[in-house]
Amino acid sequence: MNITIEDFGDRVATVWQGLRSTTRDLMEKALTANAARPVVPAARTLPYDARADWELSRLLTVLDERAADARELLSSEQSSNLEKMAETCAAVLLDRTQSAEVFAQLVERAHVRCDYARIDALADALSKRLAPAEICELARSGNVVVRALAHESLVTAPTSVLVGLLRDPVDAGIARDVLERQAVDYDSEEARQIVNFLDQSELSGE
After folding, report:
1. Cβ atoms 138, 103 nearer than 8 A
2. Share of the chain above pLDDT 70, in %
3. Which has more pLDDT, 59 or 72?
4. Pure H helices in the chain
5. What pTM was computed for the model?
6. For residues 28 and 22, what is the distance between their CA atoms, to the nearest angstrom?
7. Given this model, what pLDDT does residue 75 score?
8. Which residues are CB-neighbours of 28 under 8 A, at least 6 positions away?
């Protein structure tokens, strides 16, 4: 892929130039690999870098905004290169991110594009990358698809993990809802006993 960053506009060029060298190298290697095959190779052999997450998330935002705002101003080649760069950036984030905020960004982006394969991949990665409390954060998202994926991830968590979340006043409501789903939809006797205990405690005013 032959990229001239300046062709994508000043904002994209500014964000690109602001990337640390390690983040830029990560993208350049992925772009080179992506030119030969559509799947970006796994990069998680490298240590997780939260700052790279933030930088790539910002880059993806400006790439998508540029694609939406200036489609008629770009040549077909520029538009194609811009889309390839944005998709590669999204794929690198999918492969590496451990941020609830970035997961939400990627899910919303995939939903807008009706990219159900990527939504499935994000759903599979949720419980492997994020702590239960972070998934609860996504379960409170304003986006219905993000909320649904988070709830589906939590409902497969061990009941003991959900019990631990009950101790947090912020996450307790989500944990209670998920325990009720485990009890009703998945016929979990352990979850049913916990929900009954919670109900009795509320009735007794404890």
Report:
1. yes
2. 90
3. 59
4. 10-18, 21-36, 50-69, 76-96, 100-112, 116-129, 132-139, 144-155, 159-165, 172-185, 189-204
5. 0.87
6. 10
7. 79
8. none
